[in-house]
Specification:
293 residues; Porin; 5% helix
């Protein structure tokens, strides 16, 4: 679902970089870990975490992922009323780019654990919300007939910055204790669910809006901002190990293919239409600490 907040550009992004840097919130993150760990400081008993009855739990998660996207656009000058001059009139300029970037974050989760068949199997239902860091800086190469690929009707080499600051998900885990893991207080599980991500797209463009060819000094620059609500199915596999009577740690690998997003930017005054879409996916690895109540 697209939520436009500003709209003028005649194009979209290209090569995705991955400017990931350590999250600035390291202090609050360590403090949150201390709170979770201290809350679990109860005497250990012979009864293990895996054999306890079901109940509610809270968790703190540290996800790291690779966010990949393929972005395409088509600048269409075939309308009968187009003002784009020859040799660009009547042509469609298509551009495409694929890339990946590193993302990281911090998430809070809440769920319920239900034991099955005497706790030989268990089911978790969980919801969570998280903050994500990292950004994609993207630039299209540009497609056209001019040297700069910045004349009216061409696919301009725009620069895009893609951020996904907030995400939400609801998942179900089904797990058990295969022979070989039981002695180590380990369980293995499969996970499936849905994820929703707030994605912010910023485009910085520079090009010619005139029907007459422009010199580089005459190019106009500007910014376009778009907001998306990405949705995805998410699936994964993980291991869970007890650290105490009511504390456990999880390591989970996951994959989420996002639904394709499409949008159209019409320029009715010059008879040009820009069709754009983005396909995205994310592969993640998450470390979680869980406190049962």
């Amino acid at each position: 679902m697209l939520r436009p907040s500003f709209a003028p550009a005649l194009s979209a992004p290209a090569k995705l970089a991955s400017p990931a840097s350590p999250p600035p919130g390291a202090g609050p993150l360590l403090a949150a870990l201390v709170v979770v760990l201290s809350a679990s400081a109860t005497p250990a008993r012979a009864q293990t975490f895996l054999n306890e009855s079901g109940g509610f739990y809270l968790g703190l998660s540290l996800p790291v992922g690779s966010f990949g996207a393929t972005m395409r656009k088509a600048v269409d000058n075939t309308a009968a009323n187009t003002l784009v001059p020859e040799p660009r009139r009547g042509r469609v300029f298509r551009d495409e780019v694929t890339g990946n970037a590193l993302t990281y974050g911090l998430a809070l989760t809440a769920g319920y654990r239900l034991p099955i068949a005497g706790d030989a199997l268990y089911v978790h239902g969980e919801v969570g919300a998280g903050w994500n860091g990292g950004a994609l800086d993207a630039r299209f190469a540009g497609v056209g007939v001019s040297a700069e690929r910045k004349q009216l009707g061409e696919s301009w080499p725009d620069v895009w910055t893609v951020e996904k600051p907030l995400s939400y998900r609801a998942v179900v885990r089904v797990g058990g204790r295969p022979i070989g893991l039981l002695a180590r207080d380990l369980s293995m599980y499969l996970m499936a669910g849905v994820a929703f991500t707030d994605v912010r797209l910023r485009t910085d463009y520079d090009g010619c809006f005139s029907t007459e060819p422009c010199e580089p000094a005459e190019f106009e620059s500007g910014t376009e901002n778009l907001d998306f609500d990405f949705s995805a199915w998410i699936a994964g596999v993980g291991l869970e190990r007890r650290l105490g009577e009511r504390l456990a740690v999880r390591v989970e690998a996951s994959y989420a293919p996002y639904a394709r997003e499409d949008w159209v930017t019409p320029f009715a005054d010059v008879g040009v239409t820009v069709d754009s879409h983005i396909d995205a996916h994310e592969t993640g690895l998450t470390l979680s600490v869980v406190r049962r109540f």
